[in-house]
Each structure stands twice: as C-alpha cells, then as structure tokens.
Amino acid sequence: MVLALRSMSAQAQFIGGSSFTGKDSLVATWSGKGPAASIGFAVLGMNPPALPNLGGVVQLVLRSTTACHWATPDYRWTLIPNTEAQADGLCQVLYYRTFQANEHPPYRFRWFVTVPYDIRTYVISNVSGVDVASNNGGNGVALTAYGVATTKVGDYLMGFYANLASAGWTPPPNMGIAVKNDYAYGGPVNFPNLATQAWAYPAAPTGNKVAVSDRPSDWVADLVAFRPLYRISPQASGDINPGPVYNGCKGKVALSSGAGTFRSSCVKTTSFCQCRDTTSIANTCITANPSGGSVGLQGTGTDVELVSCF
Known about the structure:
Order of helices and strands: EEEHEEEEEEEEEEEEEEEEE
Structural class: mainly beta
Helix content: under 10%
Number of strands: 20
Strand content: over 45%
Largest sheet: 7 strands, antiparallel
C-alpha cells in the first residue's frame, strides 16, 4: 500500500473498536499453554484490517525468564528493537507491522518451549513505524517503563505492562488507559495486563512511565514511541496529550449523572467511536454502538468526555 502525504495533520491513536471503553476494549487476546500460537485481528470485524494507514502491535507474554529471547514471529512481522523485557519467570516482547492489501491471517508465532502464554493484538492508526523503545523488569507494585528520547515531533507513545498477580492498575501520569485486563471480553488468562497511550509532541526525553499495580509481583514493562505518519507542528516543550483524539469527527460532551450523547451528522452506524475522560484520565468512558447521527456515552458523574468517531 502506497501512502501519500497530505498537508493536514492526523494524530496516531489506538483503535479499540466500536465499543471502546478505555477499560475493556475489543483488543484481541490468545491465551494458552504451548510452544506456538496462530493469531489474527478479526475481533475488529476486519480480517485483515481493511482501513487505511493502520498498523498492528503484537504483545507476547510468556511464563519464562528467557523464552522471549528465542521467540520467532510470523515472517510478515518485525521485532520492535529493545522490547525484550525479563523478570523472574516472566518475559515480554513486542512486534509491529504496517498492514498491506491482500494479507491472509492467521499469523504464526513460535517460542519453542511449552509454557503459559498471553498474546494481545492492538491496531493503531496514522503511524509510520517505530522510533525508539525501552524495556525493563522487576518485582513490586511500581512497574517502571524506562523513558526514551523521541526523535520526531508528535511521536505516539504506548506503554505495555504485565505482571503475575495484579487485578487493579493505576496508569502513569499523563498517559491514558488504552486497555486493562479485559476479562469480560475474553482477555488474558495468564497475566494481568495494562496498555497506556500518550502523544509526546516535542522530540525530547519522555521520562519514565510508572504504572502502579494493586499488589506486588514480578513484572515486565515496555515503552514504545511510534513515528507519526503525518507531520505535526511543534508544540510547547513538555506538552503531553493522553489521548485518544482523532482529527475529524470529534467533540466534547458534559455528562449528566454519568450519561451523555455525542450528536453529529458525521457519526455513522459504521463508525468506530471512542472517548476519554478529560476531567480525570483514570476514569472510564464507555461508548455505545453508534447510530446515525449520535453515539451514547457512559462515564463518571458530570465529567467532560472527549469523543472521536471515524
């Protein structure tokens, strides 16, 4: 697929499907025990994804200290450098791909030893590849993804965290929750999981991104900066936007008793709509399936929600 540059800016974002909640989004998960697994992205109703400018991230988490080092991705996927994170009896590694026309899932990943595994797949838009990444592992309640020095204005950040014991998560400051645990949607069976997102507009060090779990255990963490697909104008140093945001069909809605509706002619029954709480990024925002001209929201009290549909 040839992607032509255009003058308007479009920010990168995680895509969680039409019922994105920020807590239990439609991220696909494969869990089990074995030396390999075949995966796809059909959870979004696209197999393979059929929207332009989409990339995929595969998060492989294994109940092993060293098995991620020997893991081999499907030939169409590329290891994200410096994302092999290790702890005692736990490891994580990430892969990336820009989707092309006429792909034919499933994708086969191998690690050659029989161990419990969780594989999570994420779809993100408007990125042109990986800029820089970091890895870390340890034990305790503070999961520290080491900061990176971004080289492009408008890099899109995602933090990937997993441990052996936690059910509750607090995201890093200035990062929004992309997805956590997802148990109600067939989420990870073996390892509690948190993924976070933000845009770091300046090309500069991001600082460490520390997530907090509700109980101590062994953990792994990766921070990945993706290059933006389109040029984004520089903004004030340190200006970080915890997203998701989409340049197009978007608006703000003030809730009443935890409910509200975003109304716009740009909302279609086929739209992907998602939202985030602008009052407190730790608060959940849930979108209903959109109808023609509107999409319902559920959140916290009288908080203000930022809604985007595409």
